[in-house]
Structure formats: structure tokens, C-alpha cells
Amino acid sequence: MREGQTAVIHRADYRPPAFWIDSVELCFDLDPQKTRVLNRMRLRRNPSMPAEALRLHGEELNLARVLVNGQGASFKLEDSHLVLENLPEGHEPFDLEVFTTCAPAKNTKLMGLYVSNDSFFTQCEAEGFRRITYFLDRPDVMATYSVLIRADKAKYPVLLSNGNLVEQGELDAGRHYARWVDPHRKPSYLFALVAGSLVAREQRITTRGGKDHLLQVYVRPGDLDKTEHAMNSLMASIAWDEARFGLPLDLERFMIVATSDFNMGAMENKGLNIFNTKYVLASQATATDVDYANIESVVGHEYFHNWTGNRVTCRDWFQLSLKEGLTVFRDQEFSQDLAGEPSARAVRRIEDVRVLRTAQFPEDAGPMAHPVRPDQYLEINNFYTVTIYEKGAELVRMMQTLVGREGFARGMKLYFERHDGQAVTCDDFAQAIADANPDSPLARLLPQFKRWYSQAGTPRLSARSRWDAASGTYSLTLSQSCAPTPGQPVKEPFVIPVQLGLLDASGAALSNGLHVLTQESETLTMSGLSSEPVPSILRGFSAPVCLDYPYTDAQLLLLLAHDTDPFNRWEAAQRLALHRALQAVRDSGHVELDAPFIEAMRGVLRHPQLDAAFKELVLTLPSETYIAEQLEVVDPQRIHAVREAMRQQLATALRHDWEWAYEAHHDTGAYRPDPRSTGRRALAGLALTHLCLAARLSGDPVWPGKTLQRFKDAANMTDRFNALSALVTSGHPLAAQALDRFHGQFKDDALVLDKWFALQAGAPDRGGNILPLVKQLMQHPDFNIRNPNRARSLVFSYCSANPGAFHRTDAAGYVFWSDRVIELDAINPQVAARLARALDRWRRLVEPCRSAAREAIARVAAKPDLSNDVREVVTRALAD
Fold it and tell me: Which of 67, 95, 558, 864 has the highest local Cβ count within 10 Å?
């Protein structure tokens, strides 16, 4: 169902298609205003389904001709479908030809075929192919594709599509053509076409299997020098997948193309990945360490889809996590394996968990909560969520925990042996992993484990201990529960792998092991102990749950100082900070950091053995969003004030330690984005931020002056942006000078300007100054709301990532939000729907914010011509 239709799609209603499409021949005559698409398909009836009419999906197409077996055919257009009833009987194949035109230059939704910077691009996932031609646009219809592209050679010298280039040549009137053939069957959402004036970095490789391949990264002229890291990441991905899982590159060539107008991060179209420039372009002068890490991860993610998503795809969109959750897990494992050292691997794991807890846990507790495998949707684009991706990855990680790393590799091997070339379900994947490991806990508990796919919400793992000094017996009772979510008032017990360790009073390790919790409550008993141990629960974050255990400060300080599990060491510091923040928010709003906490943070900062990257994570306070999720009633401005006060006190109390940290870590030598160097830059940047904050409080001009000089002299974007951020977030007057200089230096680099907009929109609010600044920046000549990256950099940074500034008591932030959602919905519904999610958690806000937020949501919902994308979000937000 598309625009103007409100029918909910249910997983239980899945039916195989009445027809199969075996092969597709597409011919494109490209023109921005009127592109002609000739689609020749070979179809056959599905013998397992009753005879019925053929209903092809189509949107915003001009239909010119329909032929069946070369003859004119009767048809009708009905509810965005091309309906053909009088088709050949029996199950023999027949040919269907459909000729249509479309207008790519007018396509602001960036779905289907569109124009960006005078080049043609496509985005077909989830349902964009129907905006190119009439088709059975569903993932279980898999066909081979042959694509002929014709275009003006001067304007569009590069013509690309999926698979292998089999023919190219010249045509009359300055035009040329290229023919591409993809030998692998694929669903329509993996189709891709690119045409434009592009240049490519090329690399020829020989894989472990001895086959030669051509790798290409296409970008606009002038950006070629920023593609080395993307190419290196692609080569590393290919090598890793073949070494870790035995999965080789299966095409003669593999191409990546970057565009600045893209709704998503990237798209795994078979052999022709189309990327947002944000995840391709990098040089030390324009990209931060975070950008480098993200490029490596996203390039890996899209390449890994070549097998987990392309060779084996989803039967229907309810199975989206089959490919996305699995592939996020694979890209996380890839990044951890490339990190190498255990401490660097731990840093990557902590960063992944922070995303899960600050983005996915709130989603699980809000109106858009849904299972990893949803039961229904109105608009599938709304279900490209952190639940499908990041929580889905945690489900796969738990499978690996339950069967072991080698057992998981066996399961993957069996999965491809069974399902290569098929469209399958999450059940098929889980069954393969279990069947390959028949003696594992997963095989024994598989039906119960699959509740993770069907039940929404974040389970709460409650742990309570009992110590009997007389007998030296320690008991730990683990209990699980899960709060109701929309449509699911009651939850059955999950399978929860709990990695558990015990430390004695000196911090020495007593035990370490895995317990698999399957009941509502279970008690573990350990005897023969000489003193009460301290439990280290959920090591490595072994399950995506909220842990409830009444740790004392003394226990947390011991874990922080001695736990051998890096995740729980970091978690101990987070809990120490969180306890203090929550107490202050719940009480008067006043916070005073105590000496033991300050000394613990000093001990971490000065620790001679700890990694710099790990120190930076420990010394970074829990986010305002994460603090808010621990509260029943949320006052965003009070949370912001408390966290800012904690930052200020850390800055002042540890001033000399921050000076030491900066001086000891700011020089990283020649730029390299390796874990050690990035960790040192991260810690130096955090130190600089605290030094500028302390200087603003004391009126000391020295460190702001040093920071400005650091900003001017920096040899890489990480150091430059860290210095700029330190000035902006501390609210120092020198920030204005630095911002002007930064804009002047990078005004012609779109991705760097995105950082400039985002930094200002996300800065701490002081007296309500951020919203007027955001409105002013919307009038800036470099702002364009039609570009998704630019809209995200300014509007999203304010509405979704700056709660202290957004949730104003005068409701001005909510009025701004509603205006922008409505404005964006008319341009690009996908982007608008993501912005609409900023008020998912409005019911927990303190008054008057709560009432004002509801009024703003209702204002959006009252618009009669809303897209399904936005309508679903706001309707669910308002539902009782």
C-alpha cells in the first residue's frame, strides 16, 4: 500500500506470488525530464498457487505500451497496480513487455531513478523499483537481469549497472550505450543503475581462491584523492570474508559509487553498491577518525551483504533482520578483528553497545517498539530501525555465544549450502545455526530462543545476591521480566546468555563462566569461598538486556579498578556516574561530585597500562538520552543542567590531570587512523574540551588561546575539529572566530560543512540560544533542506540529538519540529519520518513539555495529505 492508502500489512497474510519472473531485460534511454524504460520479462505461473490476475506494482509512471508474447494486451490500472487478467493458461513461460516513462529530475523522494548533481542514480530498497517500471516488486521474486543503458556521452560518459559489462559502444547523435548482465538471480530491490560524469579509483586483486577481480570506486571529479581508505576497506572486507567464513567475491568486478543525495548510508545492490559520500570520501584534512572508522564499517557492511542479503535474501520484508541484523554482526566482527589488540576490540564493543543503549533501548520502550521480526507495518521504510539492525545483530551474537565461534562458522556454512540463491526467513537462519551444532544450548533451546525475534521490548535482568559467611556460600538469583509493548501485553521468558565472573575483595578473579537463563528466576550457588565476592554480571554485554543489580559504590570502584572484563570495567564507571546524575535529577537538581568518584576518574586517566581510547570512553559521562531512559518522568533541561555541572566539576577537579593527558597524547606523529593513534587523539580531544570548560569557569585565557592555536595549526581534521568543538561546547567567545575561519576554509567541501552545521546545532544550550541559531543557519546560503545530509546535520542535530535545547518550556522547539516534519514530508517522506521519531517518548516528559509535545504531534497528524511514512509514526505516537 502506498500514498493515500492506509491498509496495514500483516506477516500472517504472506502468500507466495501467483507468478514468477525468471528473466528481465531492461532498456533505458536516459533523460532527466523523460526517461524511457522498456521492460521485457519472461514470466510463468506459480504452480503452487491458484490462477489469478497478474498485479504489477507501479508508482508515478506514464504507461505507453503493454505486450504479451509480442501482441497487444488488455489491462487496467488499479490502486497503483497494472492488472492483466487474460494471460496464457498453463505453466509455460510467456513474455511480457511494458514500456513506460518517468521524470527522474522531479524525483525529490530519492527512491527509484533520480538525478543528483547532473548524474543518474537509483535506490530501490525497499520498494523503489516500482517507481522505475511496473514489476512484482517484492523480495521473493528473483530473476536474472540484462540491462542496456543509452545516454548522451558528453553528459553521461559512465554507464553502470549490476553484474558484468558485456558490451559498450557508440550511437548516433553523440550518444553511447553499455550492456550489463548479472549472472546471479536477485530481487528487484537489488537492482542499480548509475550514469554520469564520474571518475574511478581502480584496483585489481587476486583472491585466496586464485581468481582475479577488478575493484572500482566511482566519485565526482575532484574527489578521487579521498577514495584510498574506502578502497583499502573494500579489499580488507573481501579478504576477511573469505578467511573468516569462506565466502569469496563472486563477480568479475565490484563497484562502489558515491553520491551526496542519498536517504541512507549505503545500499548493497549486487556488485554495484551506491553510497552516501559520507561513507566513502576521506582524507586526513577533511575526515575525522570517526569518519574513517565509519567508512571501514559501512564498506564492510555493504560488501558482506553480497552473501548475507544478496546470495540469500529475505522472503518478505518482515524478515529484514535476516540480512540486516546478521550483516551488522558481521561488520562488527570485521571491525573488531581488524582492531587486533584485545583492548582495541573492547573499545569497538563498547561503542556498539552505546549505540544500542542510547538508541535501541528507547525505541523498545516507545510507541514504535516492534519485534526484530515485526508482525505488521503500514510503511516498510519506517522499519529500517536500530531494532532491526543493532538488536538483530545482538541476537546473532547470542547465537555465536551459545554455539561458539567455530560452531557459528559451521552454521553459516550450512546456511549457504541449504539456501544459496533463495529468499528465506529468520527461522531458516536460526535453524541452520542450530542444526550445525546439535549438542549446543541453542539447538536444545531454539523454540524459546526465537522469542527474541517475536517479542518486542528490552528484557530486564534482575540479580540479587546472598552471602552466608558461616558456610562460605554465595548465592546469586537471576530473574527476568519484560515490560508490555504495543500489542504485546504479556511476555514469555527469553533465553538470556549471562557471562558471569566473581572477584574477591582484593580484585582477584575467582571464577568466570556462562550461565544460560531460561526461566523467570534461577539461583546459582557457589560454596567454599572465604569472603563475599563481587559479581561481574553480563560480561562483554552478553545479552541485550537492562541489568538491575544493587551495586554499592565500593563494589563498582573495585570492578573499575580490577575487573578483567573491559566492558564491565567501563560499565562500572558509567554506573558510578549514573548514580550521581540520577540522584541529583530526582532531588534538587544540584550535584556535587564526591572525592572517591573524582579520585577513581583520576586513577583511570593516569593509569599507565590502560589504553587511551578506553580511558576516553570511561571519562565520558553517560549521555543525556541514556540518563533520561532511567527516569519515569523526564525533565530534559534539568538532566542537561546536571550533566553539565558534572562535566564542569570533572574539568575543574582534574584540571592538572587533563593538562598532563593533553601534553602526553596530543602528538600522534604522521596521521594514521589505527586504533592506537585514534585513541590518543580522542583522549587529547577530551582533555582539551575539559580544559576549555575549566578555563571558561575560571576566566583563564591560556587554554582557550592554546586551543585556538591548535585549531589553526592542526595537520588533520580530527585534531582541528576536536579543538573547534572544545571552544564551541565550552561556550568560549573565541568559538565565533574559529567557526568563521572553519567555514571559510572548508566552504566548498559539503561533508565538512555538515560537521560545521551539526556542531552548532548540537552545542549546549545557554539561555535558549540554540534554536534562534538553528533558525538563522537555515537561512544560510549553504543550507539546503532537500539534501538529506544537510537536513540531518542541522535539523536532526537540534531536534534529535540536543534534548536540553530542543525541549523548551515555551514549546518553540516543538513548533519548529512540526514545521520541519511537514516541510520535509512534501519533499522526502523517508527523511521526514525519521525526524518525526524525535518525539517518540513525549509521554514521559514533565509538564508543560508533555502537553506541548502532544499538541505538536497532533498538528502534524492533522495534515490531510501526509505520507504513510509520517502518518504511521505520529499515529502510533498518539495512540493510547
Answer: 558
